[in-house]
Structures are given as structure tokens and as C-alpha cells.
Write a structure and sequence with these properties.
Layout: E1 9-14, E2 25-30, E3 43-48, E4 51-57, H1 72-81, E5 86-95, E6 105-107, E7 110-114, H2 139-151, E8 156-158, E9 161-165, H3 173-181, E10 186-188, H4 194-200, E11 204-213, H5 226-252, H6 279-284, H7 290-293
Parallel strand pairs: 1-4, 1-5, 5-11, 6-8, 7-9, 9-10
Antiparallel strand pairs: 2-3, 3-4, 5-10, 6-11
Helix pairs in contact: 2-5
């Protein structure tokens, strides 16, 4: 499909509380199959201010999936199959900086991936690709999110590095201090390999990291407790719903081509020669890379 003909569909990844948005219409849950396995849950389709939305509870409804158990490839592939063009990721995080207090939203611009038990690419033997992750989030989406957060008077910081850990345990004090020494802003368990896969699937991606705690480095906050996190999460969910509701109309006015090249990330990434490509692998990549692999 030509870029000029592409319809804007916004995908939102996050907790179930984010989806209870005033004004969301034509709601339906629908299962979407993926050759990469089962997504976290059915997808929730709807429309808000005339813009098509697709929501996916990252951990599944009722939170049955730990971060390691999330099928990130199936989630992103399912989004791609239903036409999602832009992804807004809403995630709970711990803070490494005094000024990023619980309740602050951080619009991330960089990641450090410390996960180690997850499938991190759609590609592999029979079809190799290397996408750039130098600038892993879409600045256009970040601009819209910053404007919406400012309009809502949500405590917000633009820019920061998200350290993705494997989990499900929280950090040791030594780990927390190490990541602080690296200059990281926040720590979470879910945005990697999510951001990498979104880039491979040529979808614009941005993260809103909602601070729930100070991790364990802070002298007044030396032990991360789930109960404390949940209390802050409840308050953050209200802000997140307001943010999504306000930002959707702006994101819906999408240019034909992303000015930052997110929707063309594979154009210089495919390495395997046509005659060496595995037909079975190509079939799995029909949604993620079909724009190039199926080109005449």
C-alpha cells in the first residue's frame, strides 16, 4: 500500500485501566492470529474523535503474564496485521533521578536493553535484517505527547534513557547504583524488545514511562513494594487515560510518510540475497516486511 493511501491506526500498549476512555466508540474485542504465536490477549478495537484505535493489554487482562512471558513478537505482528501505523506504549517504571518523582511521566528517547530471555527480532536464518536503533522512538509522536501532557498539567520530563531489565524481580541495590552511574533515567521490564520489534515492523513508536517509585537506590525508598506501586499506578492511570484521549486527534493527523523514517526502517536493512531467502521465513514475515518482500 502506498504511503499516501495508508490509513492512520493508533495502537496503544499498556495496562487495562488505560482503555476505559470517555468517548471511545464502536468497541469490540477480537482475537488476532500471528505466525509468531499468541498475543497477550484479544485486541480491543474502537474509535476516538474519529480516529481508529487498537488497544492491547500487554500483560493480558487480569495480568496473567510476567514480563518474560509476554510474546512481544506476536503483539507487534498482530498490530501490524490489523493496520496499526503508530504505537503509544504506556509503561510503569522506577526512577533513578530525584527530580523524576512518583507520578511523573517521562517521554523516553533512548533505551538500554538488559533483557536476556526474549525473542528480539522477527528475522533470522533464511532472512536476515539489521535495523538501526540509534534513535529508537519517533520524535513526531514524542512532540504530540509532550504537548498533551503540558496541556493537562501532568508532571512530565521530555527525554530520558529507559533501562530494560529482565525481571520479574526488582533490582538489587548494586544494580540500581550501577544503572544510575550509567546516566539512566528510569527502569522497567517491558519496553524491550518491544521498541526493537516496532522498528523492524516499520511502525512509529513512543513510550510514556509513568514513574511509580524510586527503585531501591533512594535513601527514603530503599525497598520497592508492589502495594506502593499499585497505589501510584491507580493515580497514574487517570492521567494516562486523559493523555491518550487528548493526544489521539493530533496523532491521527499523520503525514503520508514519517518525517523521521520510522515507516521505512527496513529499506536498507534486508541483507539476505533473494535466492538465499527461506520461503517459510518469508511467509511469517508477510505482515512485518511484506511491503518490501512482496514488492514487484
Amino acid at each position: 500500500m502506498a504511503a499516501a493511501e495508508k490509513k492512520t491506526v493508533i495502537g496503544v500498549l499498556g495496562g487495562s485501566g488505560v482503555y476505559d476512555i470517555d468517548g471511545l466508540e464502536d468497541i469490540r474485542w477480537q482475537a488476532v492470529e500471528s505466525p509468531f504465536g499468541k498475543p497477550s490477549d484479544e485486541l480491543l478495537f474502537g474509535r476516538l474523535a474519529g480516529v481508529d484505535l487498537v488497544f492491547l493489554p500487554r500483560h493480558g487482562r487480569g495480568h496473567p503474564l510476567s514480563p518474560t512471558d509476554i510474546n512481544f513478537r506476536a503483539n507487534i505482528d498482530a498490530f501490524k496485521r490489523v493496520g496499526v501505523t503508530d504505537i503509544i506504549s504506556v509503561s510503569a517504571v522506577g526512577s533513578f533521578k530525584e527530580e523524576l518523582a512518583p507520578g511523573t511521566f517521562v517521554i523516553i528517547d533512548q533505551f538500554i536493553d538488559r533483557t536476556f530471555e526474549r525473542h528480539k527480532t522477527f528475522f533470522g536464518a533464511g532472512m536476515v535484517a539489521h535495523v538501526s536503533m540509534a534513535h529508537p522512538v519517533c520524535t513526531r509522536l514524542g512532540d504530540h505527547l509532550e504537548a498533551a501532557a503540558s496541556a493537562l498539567d501532568i508532571p512530565m520530563a521530555r527525554g530520558g534513557t529507559y533501562l530494560a531489565m529482565e525481571g520479574p524481580q526488582f533490582s538489587s541495590l548494586a544494580e540500581s547504583e550501577l544503572y544510575r552511574s550509567w546516566g539512566c533515567s528510569v527502569i522497567g521490564m517491558t519496553n524491550m524488545p518491544e521498541a526493537k520489534l516496532a522498528r523492524e515492523a516499520e511502525m512509529c513508536y513512543a513510550t510514556v514511562a509513568m514513574v511509580t517509585d524510586y527503585d531501591c537506590w533512594h535513601p527514603d525508598h530503599d525497598n520497592v513494594e508492589v502495594g506502593d506501586i499499585i497505589r501510584v499506578l491507580v493515580g497514574n492511570a487517570d492521567k494516562a487515560r486523559d493523555l491518550v484521549r487528548l493526544v489521539i486527534p493530533a496523532v491521527g493527523e499523520r503525514p503520508a510518510a514519517c518525517p523521521h523514517g520510522c515507516d521505512r526502517a527496513l529499506e536498507s536493512a534486508l541483507i539476505t540475497a533473494p535466492e538465499a531467502r527461506d520461503p517459510e521465513m518469508l511467509a511469517k514475515l508477510d505482515a512485518v516486511a511484506g511491503r518490501l518482500l512482496n514488492a514487484p
